[in-house]
Automatic annotation (TrEMBL):
Gene Ontology cellular component terms for the protein in this record: cytoplasm
Record has Magnesium as a keyword: no
Domain GH3 middle: 241-326
InterPro entries reported for this sequence: GH3, GH3_C, GH3_M
GO molecular function: indole-3-acetic acid amido synthetase activity
Name of the featured protein: Indole-3-acetic acid-amido synthetase GH3.6
Provenance organism: Vitis rotundifolia
Record has Calcium as a keyword: no
Family: Belongs to the IAA-amido conjugating enzyme family.
Top-level taxonomic group: Eukaryota
Limits of the GH3 C-terminal domain: 342-458
Keyword entries, A-Z: Ligase
Length: 491
């Protein structure tokens, strides 16, 4: 995405609005620190000689972040050097170590997206023995060999056998329920994005934090930053973002997502032109869904970000938007189109069926498998099982059917009537598969901060990776219900 120097100033302005808002709801945050897991990625040069790097890397490397004046509201446990270290292992290890050493001072914890925060907890599960060893002796493991990181950590790390014993005792306990509040007892909330597809991490975060408030503070992208949540303690399902009109010129393309696509009308007929007409920020209507279109200072003109938003209310006259989904993240075999939102909902409905076995779907992705005739939807599930009872195959088959029943009528018609879609398949993958998927994405240049598990995959090496880790698979035993009658399609 093209960007310009002054854009960093504009983005910092949005960041600077976050704490004044938060302070209205959670006072006293200036009396302690934030433990945020933030990362940079190495940059590349374009053939024309411009720097190419993820937006957050640009921001963390800029003087806006590095040379920020001391402010009790932006006082983090991670020294800048640990955030700026390009080696993700060293960066994560040193940030966790510093966070653990200052555990009593931590008042809030977070990362950019929920997935990044959970990755930090997983890292702790794997490496707490080594971390405790360092805390006990006040020494730093030799794998951390970046001199600036070593120096920065040494300013914080002092031998503390008492703290090491405490952390060890907590991490050794069989259950990691509430581990965040146990290790960082003064934490008031978790600052991570859990809207959009990130909502599937809410149960895991609730488990690790004993239900601490999950706070989504802002909505932004590489193209441009958009806005912030003025009611940060609301439930994740109620989060809406107020766009800051000086971030870019915002326009909105009305969409009728319920129809799946814009050229089909199920309810009152609509004027085709009306669909295409861009609406200004001041003219959006309550309850209407729109695709966000931005014209940025850096030169994007009427650029479709790909996000679908719904007007959920107004702050004075400023509209507030719920994030609905990313457009076109679709599974499609025939004329069906399944977006991320529907998929998420279907997975949730099916995963609820596993609760009786104390099991949950910890990660998922999907694939439109057209190598069979007819093609079918494949869902890759990674399962977290805390109960002792094995899950019978019939339960997974029921899950397949529940998912199909949850999908839209065009899909169900394809299955039940047209037979243009084959039975939905669930492939259970072994634990750690989605970490491997992330590692693969990172190795291909994805940014660790901005990484989001793809909810639909098409790229052959990724499908191969997933298939190589399948432990069992199940198909929907029958067709989902579909009632013929009303016309779905316009020709
Ligand atoms: P990137 O440019 O890779 O950081 O991705 C930006 C995209 O991430 C946005 O266009 C959204 O689709 C998604 N995103 C960013 N912030 C949020 C948020 N607060 N809630 C839901 N999705 C978000």
């Amino acid at each position: 995405m093209p960007t310009i120097e002054e854009e960093l100033g504009r983005r910092s302005l949005l960041y600077s609005l976050l704490m004044p808002v938060m302070n209205q709801f959670v006072p006293g945050l200036d009396e302690g620190k934030g433990m945020y897991f933030l990362f940079v990625k190495s940059e590349a040069k374009t053939p024309g000689g411009l720097m190419a790097r993820p937006v957050l890397t640009s921001y963390y490397k800029s003087s806006y972040f590095r040379d920020r004046p001391y402010d009790p509201y932006t006082n983090y446990t991670s020294p800048n050097e640990t955030i700026l270290c390009p080696d993700s292992y060293q960066s994560m290890y040193s940030q966790l170590l510093c966070g653990l050493c200052q555990n009593k001072e931590v008042l809030r914890v977070g990362a950019v997206f929920a997935s990044g925060f959970i990755r930090a907890i997983r890292f702790l599960e794997k490496h707490w023995v080594l971390l405790c060893k360092d805390i006990r002796a006040g020494t730093l493991d030799s794998q951390i060999n970046d001199p600036s990181v070593r120096e920065a950590v040494k300013r914080i790390l002092k031998p503390n056998p008492e703290l090491a014993d405490f952390i060890e005792a907590e991490c050794r306990r069989e259950s990691w329920e509430g581990i965040i509040t146990r290790l960082w007892p003064n934490t008031k909330y978790i600052d991570v994005i859990v809207t959009g597809t990130m909502s599937q991490y809410i149960p895991t975060l609730d488990y690790y934090s004993n239900g601490l408030p999950l706070v989504c503070t802002m909505y932004a992208s590489s193209e441009c930053y958009f806005g912030l949540n003025l009611n940060p303690l609301c439930k994740p399902s109620e989060v809406s973002y107020t766009l800051i009109p000086t971030m870019a010129y915002f326009e909105f393309l009305p969409v009728n997502r319920k129809n799946g696509f814009t050229n089909v009308s199920q309810s009152a007929p609509r004027n085709e032109k009306e669909h295409q007409e861009l609406v200004d920020l001041v003219d959006v209507k309550l309850g209407q869904e729109y695709e966000l279109v931005v014209t940025t200072y850096a030169g994007l003109y009427r650029y479709r970000v790909g996000d679908i938003l719904c007007v959920a209310g107004f702050k004075n006259k400023a509209p507030q938007f719920k994030f609905i989904c990313r457009k076109n993240v679709a599974l499609s075999i025939d004329s069906d189109k399944t977006d991320e939102f529907e998929l998420q909902n279907a997975v949730k409905n099916a995963a609820d069926h596993l609760l009786q076995f104390d099991a949950s779907v910890t990660e998922y992705t999907s694939y439109a498998d057209t190598s069979t005739i007819p093609g079918h939807y494949v869902l890759y599930w990674e399962i977290g099982l805390s109960g002792a009872t094995p899950i019978p195959p019939s339960v997974f088959e029921d899950c397949c059917l529940i998912m199909e029943e949850s999908l839209n009528s065009v899909y169900r018609q394809g299955r039940a009537s047209d037979k243009s879609i084959g039975p939905l398949e669930i492939r259970i993958v072994e634990g750690g598969t989605f970490d491997k998927l992330m590692d693969y994405a990172l190795s291909q240049g994805a940014s660790i901060n901005q990484y989001k598990t793809p909810r639909c995959v098409k790229y052959a090496p990724i499908i191969e990776l997933l298939n190589s880790r399948v432990v069992s698979n199940y198909f929907s035993p029958k067709c989902p219900k579909w009632v013929s009658g009303h016309k779905q399609w316009c020709t």
